[in-house]
Design a protein that fits this description.
By secondary structure, this protein is an alpha/beta fold. The protein has helices at about 45-70, 90-105, 115-130, 170-180, 185-195, 220-230, 235-245, 255-260, 260-290, 305-315, 325-330, 335-345; strands at about 5-10, 15-25, 25-35, 80-85, 110-115, 135-140, 145-155, 155-165, 295-300, 320. The chain has 12 helices and 10 strands. The longest helix has 29 residues, at about 260-290. The chain binds 5'-O-[(R)-(carboxyoxy)(hydroxy)phosphoryl]adenosine and zinc ion.
Length: about 350
Amino acid sequence: MPGTARILGIESSCDETAAAVVQGGVNILSSVVASQLAHAKYGGVVPELASREHLRAIVPVVREALARADAGLEDAAAVAVTEGPGLVGSLLVGITYAKGLCFALGKPLIAVNHIEGHIHAVVMEARQSGAPVRFPALALVVSGGHTHLFEVREGFGYRLLGKTRDDAAGEAYDKVAKLLGFGYPGGPVIDRLAALGDPDAVRFTLARMKGNPADFSFSGLKTAVLRWVEANPMEEEVARRRERLRQIDHPGVEQWLALTPKRTLDLLASFQKTVIEELMRRLDAAAEQIAARTIMISGGVACNAGLRAAAARAPLPAPVLFPASDLSTDNAAMIAAAAFPKFERGEFAPLSLAAKANLALA
Ligand code: KG4
Ligand code: ZN
């Protein structure tokens, strides 16, 4: 029975090894995410390190997901796996493992686009809440790798409305964090510290775009932060933070706060305010353009407290839905959920499925 089918989802596109069992595209029976801490001190994901960590984690993570769902491999109606976009060496670990399971068990394989997965995190939660997404919907996928706006039509047809021309929003957070000695990922720590600074202290100008008004740009802002740091030297505090990172992979906010003066909190607050304004401005215009009936915001940056507050305050033309934080960042429940309509349509992938570093959704 398709409505109760349990799908085992596997995600390994970047630095999270994840597996989940989702029933009927809605009920999360388990969702296990192993985050790789080893990248913190390098200021970004190191691809070789990532694939090695995936290899180490994939078997225990899948086992754990099945155990928590009280299921065996034979209970899965299909295995869904992220085919791209992402790091090829990382994607390959999940894909190879999923193919092996399907070959051994005679189960169908379903290939899922990671970006579509992020969108389905919202769709799944909306269905759980009993207030499903209404179409046409507007989806903003905003993460370390993507800042994309899509029109989503009934039956999950996608039209790309705009995307970043340079850095993704999460990438801008991560690069600013690296510059200031906060380590990777930068979003969560900057978000917490920004709340303690004055967002009007430093004036950054918003990107002015020619051409498609739904496109984003964040590299100018990143450069403006760099220029500000050059004009207001802070070598000593940055060195102290880097030293802390050498001692410990993920210092807590209290520790960072003790190493961060008010002037830097103000810089972070001003940076965050500018990122949010850039996102909100394009979102508002695109929602009007397609007469969206629901607005969905997902991807790691959707965890951002400032962005959630801005979306709640803004007079947007349709209700805005965010996934819970653990479904905003990379996870496999969203992959299993995105696979469900494909399962119902019998849209299966061949066992020759390849990893695709660059895979467009529309
Ligand atoms: O979706 P995700 O887990 O992986 C990608 O597909 O990229 O997103 C990770 C990104 C990182 O760039 C991280 O810094 C950012 O999401 N991020 C945040 C926050 N939490 C995670 N950015 C801003 N504010 C946050 N609270
Ligand atoms: Zn992602």
